Amino acid sequence: MVKAEKEIANRPDNTAFTQQRLPAWQPMLSAGIVIPGFVLIGLAFIGIGVALFVTSRSIEVLEIDYTGEDKNSPCFKCSDQDVKNCVCNLEFSLDSLFEGPVFFYYGLSNYFQNYRKYAASRDDDQLSGDLDAFTSPSDSCSPFDLNGNDKPIVPCGAIANSMFNDTFVLYRVVNGVKKLVPLDGKGIAWWTDYNVKYRNPTVTPLKNAFNGTVKPISWPKPAYQLDTSDPANNGFINQDFLVWMRRAALPDFRKLYRRITEGEYEKGLPAGNYSLKIAYNYPVLSFHGTKKVVFSNVSWMGGKNEFLGIAYLVVGSLCVLMSIVMLIVYAKFKFPEDD
């Protein structure tokens, strides 16, 4: 008796919802629906794939390696880590207009920014401007939290310490005279990084916020001197710093360095000879890496990416092929009631 009462008490309400009696629609798939559906999907994917592939092929990309591993490289002398303050020049020429807007990247290979311990080696409280974190860095930054004299490092961590510090100056060579090409470094970082995630301490002048701290071991100057000419690009909101702190997912990557969009270069880089002056500071040969500069323009689909168009073409072709196979099977083995 007691058992029967418990079963009644646990029984769901006798409603259409709890008893699953609500009106429902279930598609009845048939060959007349599935086969044309596969054809339409396949044709749509093929069309999109062709558009993506053709657009990607129209994007211009110029890559120049400047690692200096080859003895014939103009940067060979700089690849020796014992050589300090080394400068090398890369000469290149363009046969036709390199259509703008032109994006200037630096690229690294065999560099695993996605390594878990490396990725966790940072202090987000520091990077958000918390002064308490300046004097007591997070343990996650170890061994880049304190220097040899037990002074706190700001910004701490392996990511910040390994910030890319090669610099570039581009010249256009006209009749043997070098003419500076303006490089725009504003707005190259993510909007959320610049306006939300990273903040400078609310201390004026900014230098005072770093009292009692030291710069990262591998940095030539402290964070408050990254760009003293522009307070909106100094400290933790420096554009180059933000770009570096946004980690890459793959070991071979490139990061945006500058845009070429100003003055007579608004429509792109004219045909002619160019000279790229490089302040070679960042060592890569110790981990068998390489360095390169990349000039590229973009389209409505972004940068050059032929894989996306090929993927759409493959999927679309497979859909059309499967529709043909299903049509043959249906024509040979269809049941009388399907007529």
TrEMBL record:
Major localisation: membrane
Transmembrane segments: 33-54, 310-331
Subcellular location: Membrane
GO biological process entries: phospholipid translocation
Pfam families, sorted: CDC50 (PF03381)
Alphabetized UniProt keyword annotations: Membrane, Transmembrane, Transmembrane helix
A GO CC annotation given for this chain: endoplasmic reticulum
InterPro entries: CDC50/LEM3_fam
PANTHER family reported in the protein's UniProt record: CELL CYCLE CONTROL PROTEIN 50 (PTHR10926), CELL CYCLE CONTROL PROTEIN 50B (PTHR10926:SF19)
Family the UniProt entry places it in: Belongs to the CDC50/LEM3 family.
The protein, known as: Cell cycle control protein
Organism, scientific name: Eleginops maclovinus
